[in-house]
Amino acid sequence: MKRFAAVAALxxxxxxxxxxxxxxxxxxxxxxxxxxAYITFxxxxxxxxxxxxxxxxxxxxxxxxNIGKQLVWGMSNDGPGKYAGGTxxxxxxxxxxxxxxxxNGNVLKVAGCVGPICKKQTWSRVK
Length: 127
Fold this sequence. Notes:
Pfam families: DUF2147. The chain is mainly β. The chain has a single domain (about 20-125), classed as Lipocalin (Beta Barrel), CATH 2.40.128.520. It has one helix and nine strands; from the N terminus they run H-E-E-E-E-E-E-E-E-E. It has one helix spanning about 1-20, and strands at about 25-30, 35-45, 45-55, 60, 70-75, 80-90, 95-105, 105-115, 115-125. The protein has an eight-stranded antiparallel β-barrel with strand order 1-2-3-5-6-7-8-9. Strand 5 and strand 6 (about 80-90) form a beta hairpin.
């Protein structure tokens, strides 16, 4: 019985990285109000969240006070390449919107919505 438990624990440890969600990683946003950011997606409990990890403007990289803040949270995997139920924050306005995302390879389409109207961006994976 001890051998079975040890093998099961080892299997769980080795399977952990293989079970990472495909959206995990770093994504470059589109330019919004003259700036763009790198967003790092990972798990936040049972849901996915994206945190601002680096910021850039026309002069290059700069240290925004928004670094380390969540830009996307509460996102759930809703089937292959589809994410829903999240919230996205627009730093330039301070507003929060209902959000959904679609992943296709190294392209992440992100939408922030009010009612049926959505503002969309296409983000690219940073390698």
